[in-house]
Design brief:
With 167 residues, this protein is α+β, with helices and mostly antiparallel strands. Helix content is 32%, strand content 38%. It binds coenzyme A. Coenzyme A binds next to strand 4, helix 4, strand 5 and helix 5.
């Protein structure tokens, strides 16, 4: 798959659904290939029981190809995770999952979305910047596994006619 046309067609077949415990085998496989310090299965099980958490998977036909999660903290949505299957990246799915989360949280009254990202994670920082996230601060040596700095990013949701103005 190389052309923009193929990528668009592929993305059009992706559906986003709430994550359920049966999804966790596939989610954990992507998790281990995506993060230097993967969350445990137990952490995901706990998250799925937390009423302030919301997790979604992206499914292409039968295969889970990505996921995203957040905590709803009053008027703030805090993104806890976002990952796309390593062989399915650069097809627009990361953006699609992010868009889904922003729309979902805005419909529930959130006015800002926050997250932390590794300083050297250029792919994610670029993705978030493209969605209008601003870098608000540095968390020195925030990631214990590598000692890497964390970057705090924030997007204020502007309300225009009940919806965020288009990016
Ligand atoms: C970050 C991640 C979710 C992006 O997913 P994706 O499906 O590849 O992203 P998209 O195809 O929607 O990319 C959207 C934009 O993000 C930026 N981007 C994505 N990957 C990039 C890369 N490797 N290098 C530079 N920019 C990149 C580009 O601006 C891209 O737009 P373009 O393709 O038109 O140039 C994916 O790389 C991933 O799962 N990484 C490992 C887990 C991770 O780091 N998660 C973030 C935790 S905060």
């Amino acid at each position: 798959m190389t052309s923009a046309f193929d990528r668009r067609n592929w993305l059009a077949e992706v559906v986003i659904e709430e994550m359920v415990p049966d999804d966790l085998d596939e989610v954990m496989a992507i998790e281990h290939r995506s993060f230097p310090c993967a969350w445990s299965r137990c952490s995901y099980e706990r998250e799925l029981r937390n009423r302030n958490s919301h997790y979604f998977v992206a499914r292409h036909r039968a295969e889970i190809v990505g996921y995203v999660g957040m905590w709803a903290l009053s008027a703030e949505c805090h993104i806890t995770t976002l990952a796309v299957h390593p062989e399915r990246r650069r097809r627009g799915l990361g953006g699609r999952l992010l868009r889904h989360l922003i729309d979902f949280t805005q419909e529930r009254g959130a006015t800002q979305v926050t997250l932390e990202v590794r300083e050297r994670n250029d792919a994610a920082r670029q993705l978030y910047r493209g969605f209008g996230f601003e870098e608000r601060g540095l968390l020195p040596r925030y990631y214990g596994d590598t000692g890497e700095n964390g970057v705090v990013m924030c997007k204020v949701l502007r309300v225009a006619g009940g919806r965020e103005a288009a990016d």
